[in-house]
Amino acid sequence: MNAKLLKENSMSLDICKVVTGVALILKRAGKLLLYKRNIKGKIAFGSFALPGGTVENDETVKRTACREAAEEIGIGIKEKDVSIVHITRLREKYDVSKNQTNQILMLYFAEVNKWVGEPQNLEPHKHSELAWFDIKELPQNLFPLNEQVLCYVDRGVFYSEHGW
Q1: pTM of the model
Q2: What domain range is 85 assigned to?
Q3: Number of domains in the chain
Q4: Per residue in 15-33, pLDDT tens?
C-alpha cells in the first residue's frame, strides 16, 4: 500500500465515530413488540422500531439490554435471559461530497423470551406508541433495517453490514 493511501485511510479513521447500540426483540403469543419513534432528526423517525438504545462506556451489551428494557418499557430482564441473535454494522452518517463516513453504528439484536412486568411506554417524548404486532402482519412503516434484520434472524444469519 502506498504512503498516500495509507495516510488517507488513517485520517478517515481518526474522524469516524463508532456507536454501539442494542435492539430488543420481544415476542409473545406470535406478536412482536414495537414502538413508534418520534424524535425528529434521529434514526428511524416516524417508523415503528424495536426498543433499545446506546451502550454506555461502563456497560456490556447484555447489561445495556437490561437497562434499556427498564428505562424505556418498564420491564425487568436478567442478563442470563438475553441472547444476542444478530449483529449489524451500519454506515450511518456518510458525507458524499467528501466520500467520508462520520459515524458507524454497531447494533446488537438481543432476543429476550423472559421478563417481569408488562411493557409500557415510559418515554412518550421519544416514542409516540408502543404496541404488539402480529409477526406475520408487521406495520408498513416498520424501520427497514429492523425488518431486514428480523428476516436475517429467522434465517439464522448472525452478521450483516448496511450502507456500503
Answers
A1: 0.86
A2: 14-162
A3: 1
A4: 778 899 999 999 999 999 9
